[in-house]
Design brief:
The protein is an alpha/beta fold and 521 residues long. It has 17 helices and 14 strands. The chain is globular and about 75 Å long.
């Protein structure tokens, strides 16, 4: 019997995190190997049951990532995704050799539209592929998950036949993906209930949900599936994923925790680590979390209305259904300033979920002092942006040393930039159509490249005219897309840092030349 089955009780819901696989398929969300390992170790620490580490056949980089995650994860099951082909499954099995607990997750499309237009296969041939792929996976491990891609648009009789065949062939988990985010909760819950009542051997496998958010219903559909008998939920940190994303882990976990009266289920997640995980994933992907995002958004525990403030002062339960501490968010937001010392700063970093070495703390403290001299108030979000930027700047071939801008109503605008290129400082003066263009032109002269700018985005980390600017830059080169981020009170310096951060990621990708990434459910 598999780990997932032995851990299961009537009310226990397994959390299957696919941030490293489905989440990374978000355009621009690619992570380096080091970043993936950092995320995987945190997911393992917070109690995730299954970590889907990647799609090993997709590229050499994906294979290496799954292999390395399998080596470092101590408690969770490490999962690799594979299509129904033998090469895919064998590649996944090889990547998982060193895992303490490994799982192969294999899938094939079962809906009429997918079988006809995508696979160009007849239903009976797809059914044969289900049996052969699960059988092949069982040669590698007794922990096999099978998914009928586009399950929610599959004919029920055929879906039941495929699920029954997969379990008979040895699948221990059956995942039911709402691949295109088409379902509504009542419909998805009924689908899970139908499978439980119509598939004769369904009691031999754990039923899993995998819902996409195209209609904003991923979490609602997942919870409807749990209410109907599913005992594993596939989700991602911050809800990242293809198109509109996946069910958000933090929303699933806290919905079950807060509304135990309506949904008497539990997970093994340490909810106090949720905010830390959210910030880490946002940092490594350069995907900002929307301010009003449930659980982890900047405004999730903020109250501006006078009526709300009055209620909060009298009793926090008037307007908060959970405490900030329950998800790892500190109540205080204004505690640091220019008179704060290293000890207080290090303590604040610990409260915010950072564990930095002495040199990294010193570098971050130096930038914090500089920031405190410029800003009247230093908020937690300022420190988070500062440290994340410092950590990103500490790695890579390129580093911004100095930047001077000449701009105004009369052109041309001019940028004098000094970069550290592999330990050697280089300076150039460049012009452009505006100060940002001049800055990026200067970077291009000091470090020639063929990357194309796809996105340039600026937002203020906190309020006020002295707020730090957080800049995101997305670059594309030969089909490879990366996103860099920079933070500074000076928007132009932040822009330079973001562009250089993206270039550093491209340099890493150049060194790991690999086939084009494949797509999956």
């Amino acid at each position: 019997m598999s780990q997932s089955q032995t851990d299961q009780s009537a009310n226990r819901v397994l959390i299957f995190d696919t941030t490293l696989r489905d989440g990374e398929q978000s355009p621009g969300a690619s992570m380096t190997l080091e970043e993936k390992l950092q995320v995987a170790e945190l997911l393992d620490e917070m109690g995730v049951d299954v970590i889907e580490a990647g799609f090993p056949i997709a590229s050499n980089g994906d294979f290496e990532s799954v292999q390395e995650v399998a080596r470092v994860v101590k408690n969770a099951i490490v999962c690799g995704l594979a299509r129904a082909g033998q090469k895919d499954i064998d590649r996944a099995g090889e990547a998982l050799r060193d895992a303490k607990q490994g799982r192969i997750h294999t899938f094939i499309s079962t809906s009429p539209v997918h079988m006809k237009h995508k696979l160009q296969m007849e239903p009976e041939d797809v059914l044969d592929a289900v049996i052969s792929s699960v059988t092949r996976a069982r040669n590698w491990t007794d922990n096999v998950e099978w998914s009928p891609e586009d399950a929610t648009r599959t004919e029920h009789d055929y879906l039941c036949a495929c699920v029954e065949a997969a379990i008979k062939a040895g699948a221990t988990t059956i995942n039911i993906p709402d691949t295109v985010g088409y379902s509504v909760p009542e419909e998805y819950g009924a689908l899970i209930a139908m499978l439980k009542s119509c598939v004769p051997n369904i009691d031999k496998a754990v039923i899993s949900t995998h819902c996409h958010n195209d209609l904003g219903l991923a979490v609602a559909n997942s919870l409807a599936g749990v209410a109907s008998g599913a005992r594993q939920v596939e989700c991602t940190i911050n809800g990242i994923g293809e198109r509109a994303g996946n069910a958000a882990l933090e929303e699933i976990v806290m919905a079950l925790k807060v509304r135990g009266d309506a949904m008497p289920f539990e997970t093994g997640i340490d909810s106090e680590m949720i905010a830390r995980a959210s910030k880490l994933v946002s940092s490594v992907t350069a995907f900002p979390v929307q301010y009003n995002k449930a659980i982890v958004g900047q405004n999730a525990f903020a109250h501006e209305s006078g009526i709300h403030q009055d209620g909060m002062l009298k009793n926090t339960q008037t307007y908060e259904i959970m405490t900030p501490e329950s998800v790892g968010i500190s109540k205080s937001s204004l505690v640091m300033g220019k008179h704060s010392g290293r000890h207080a700063f290090r303590k604040k970093l610990e409260e915010l979920g950072y564990d930095l070495g002495q040199n990294a703390v010193e570098d971050a403290f130096r930038r914090f002092k500089d920031l405190a001299d410029k800003k009247k108030h230093v908020f937690d979000d300022d420190i988070v942006a500062l440290v994340d930027d410092e950590m990103a700047a500490g790695e890579g071939v390129l580093k911004v040393v100095a930047l001077k801008i000449v701009c105004g109503t009369e052109g041309p605008q001019e940028a004098t930039l000094t970069l550290d290129v592999s330990g050697e400082e280089k300076t150039v003066v460049a012009t452009g159509d505006g100060p940002v263009d001049a800055t990026f032109n200067a970077i291009g002269e000091l470090f020639p490249h063929k990357a194309h700018l796809q996105l340039y985005q600026v937002h203020a980390v906190t309020e006020g005219t002295d707020a730090q600017a957080e800049v995101s830059v997305r670059l594309e080169e030969d089909g490879k897309t990366v996103t860099g981020r920079g933070a500074e009170t000076d928007t132009l310096v932040a822009s330079a840092r973001a562009y250089v951060s993206a270039l550093n990621k491209l340099i890493v990708k150049r060194r790991k030349s690999a086939p084009e990434a494949l797509q999956a459910s």
